[in-house]
Amino acid sequence: MDRLTDTDAATGDDPQEESTSDSGGSFLYELPGLLLAALIVAVVIKTFVIQPFYIPSGSMIPTLEVDDRVMVSKVNDVFGEIERGEILVFENPYRVAEEESIPEAVVRSVLEALGIRTSPYDDLVKRVVALGGEEIEIRDNQVLVDGFAVDEPYLQPGASMPEFGPQVVPEGHLFMMGDNRNSSSDGRVFGPIPVEDVIGEAVIRIWPLDRVGGI
Hints:
The protein is of the alpha+beta class. It contains 5 helices and 12 strands. 30% of the residues lie in helices and 27% in strands.
């Protein structure tokens, strides 16, 4: 032990400097692994817990504006029942599956996890108006569920709705409508959607900053 210490001193090596150098090199060596681990965590959270989405259209005005960013919880509707009035993100009934390579799928998942990109052509955001087993009808510019008028304070003054129904929503399905009834392609066009197509519930707006808060 003494000889090793004497040799270090004789050659001018500084053990503390060498340790610091090794530490810096070790960090740079481990950095790709740390970034990969963080990426995996982000993708897992996006897939199973919560995911940012942006609003690409005006179908939910005034509740959600174009380019709003919202956080969509994927937990709420797993451990609780879906209720009328909830704002849900779900798969577009008319979407066409696109083939993509593994690298393209990875890049897409990363961008979606970071909220930089969502899938405006694959995913829609609307409000639950009627549940499975209920009868929905629009008469005299009023939504009726099982014959009773639905209170919809979120609609803009002057909202206009053509006559529709009556139609019974199949069990295991939801009837979705946009809050902008004058300009929304929703259940009145594509019909009820399967509950299994629901991605999650929009729970909070995170952008723009002056409108951050619950939805």
